[in-house]
Specification:
The termini are far apart. The chain has one domain. β1 and β2 form a beta hairpin. The relative contact order is 0.19. It is mainly beta and 135 residues long. The protein is built from 2 helices and 11 strands.
Length: 135
């Protein structure tokens, strides 16, 4: 297991694992994490999530150098958040989001900007999977 450290947090990456586990907080950054989209991506601290119901530990994987996949457990989110964020099999980003440098660097991504818009979502037995294109 590799531990990735930033000033405040720690992220977990299992050896030979194709993903990093991080905390994703849903909402709009300009609305203090209210609204729809991704508000923040932080390394996890192994204790608990920052905002229960609006945040969840998420497996983040690089699909290509310009795309990522978020895989999150449904039981970590409130049902009203699932209904609001993932309506009709789409994930809507009300505003653009910049991935943090630590994540871009560790995953060796070619871009870090996620444009506002709608992205495909698939529902697995216990997970929600979101595919996001970077530019």
């Amino acid at each position: 297991m590799t531990t990735l450290k930033t000033v405040e947090f720690t992220a977990i990456q299992l050896k030979k694992s194709p993903f990093i586990v991080a905390e994703v907080i849903f909402g709009s950054p300009k609305k203090n994490c209210a609204g729809i989209g991704i508000c923040k991506v932080s390394p996890v601290d192994n204790i608990s999530t920052t905002l229960p119901c609006r945040s969840v530990r998420t497996e983040i994987a690089s699909i290509k150098s310009n795309a990522i996949r978020l895989r999150l457990r449904m039981d970590g989110l409130c049902s009203n958040l699932i209904d609001r964020q993932f309506k009709q099999g789409r994930f809507k980003m009300e505003e653009a989001f910049e991935l943090p440098f630590w994540l871009v660097d560790e995953m060796q991504l070619a871009a870090r900007h996620i444009k506002a818009g709608q992205y495909p979502v698939s529902f697995e037995e216990e997970h929600i999977v979101i595919h996001l294109r970077l530019n």
